[in-house]
Amino acid sequence: xxxxxxxxxxxxxxxxxxxxxxxxxxxxxxxxxxxxxxxxxxxxxxxxxxxxxxxxxxxxxxxxxxxxxxxxxxxxxxxxxxxxxxxxxxxxxxxxxxxxxxxxxxxxxxxxxxxxxxxxxxxxxxxxxxxxxxxxxxxxxxxxxx
Amino acid sequence: xxxxxxxxxxxxxxxxxxxxxxxxxxxxxxxxxxxxxxxxxxxxxxxxxxxxxxxxxxxxxxxxxxxxxxxxxxxxxxxxxxxxxxxxxxxxxxxxxxxxxxxxxxxxxxxxxxxxxxxxxxxxxxxxxxxxxxxxxxxxxxxxxxxxxxxxxxxxxxxxxxxxxxxxxxxxxxxxxxxxxxxxxxxxxxxxxxxxxxxxxxxxxxxxxxxxxxxxxxxxxxxxxxxxxxxxxxxxxxxxxxxxxxxxxxxxxxxxxxxxxxxxxxxxxxxxxxxxxxxxxxxxxxxxxxxxxxxxxxxxxxxxxxxxxxxxxx
Lengths: 146, 314
Fold this sequence. Notes:
Helix content of chain A is 28%, strand content 41%. By secondary structure, chain A is of the alpha+beta class.
């Protein structure tokens, strides 16, 4: 993922343990903030925002690449987008079967089959469901080669 | 140098054995070092970027924007985290850390603080708990992670001017561990039970160089003098919500980064030390071999002379 090309917007995706994407030039970046999806084009105003759970996608010359992320913060300047995610995964490396199982587990917990003791457990199950959904969707989009 | 042949033979054998051990240790730590180095290098960009973001955030704050972690506290208690290793045989790694820790205690005492020295990794604790430290700082207590994190404020007030070992086996990086320490420190700092948080650890440079550093972790300083304040940045959600999300994360990342640096430094130091030891053993073995061969030759010559002169006498 170390391509350099003409596009002025540089995307960097970092997690506490890995550097997923390092300064890839792209035409546009879309990522989930805590309040909905943001699309960033070059020369965007400076922005700092919290990240939500969902799919990041960015366009380079003629391909679109998908990632999933969950939690963290983003820093945007006119020339760069830096995503500091708690968790991030490239769509190409997602294990769909595992994500599907995680989704089923989360839904089981939500309908009350598992152990729900407090409101936190419900939130936890809901965010697990969201994470699983995002991963499945990213993998689907990736294999569809949108 | 042992003179007779039998002694020499035993000595050569023992040097060879030592060499085999140091060589094995070198290989083991080389493998661990590779992993640790990779971890550090992968984690550094994130830590740097987050630090930059936090500084940015602090700079864009207005009068009304404050967060517990940014305010200076009226308290002389200063937590000093000393990160060393669990095992020895790593050259000057631990003794350098200890020296840096003693200097740090000295500095804190001189500034009128009451340091609480919290050791992670038993090697520094073994020395610091026995050594006379500046300002009458001493102690040799062990606390479990649980005891520390459940009530950090009480722990800190009980152990002012003390040396305490955190009862964890510190041999691999662990984000949960860093996070639990960070949240305990955050609680204590938020409650005003501690005025400053410092850390002594080894910054990883390469396998040959590790730099013991003494760093202030809290209160966060903005370094505002470098860049013009009030840069026009859109914040979403609000400043305080962002600060609440980012600052604890930053602290946890900071602690995690410290442990990564320390572990990579330890393996690097051990690898270098064991490499040197192996080379020394090889040198020594060669010298002993030469002495042995000379002694053997001398003995043969002597015996021959005895036989010949015996034969001539007949």
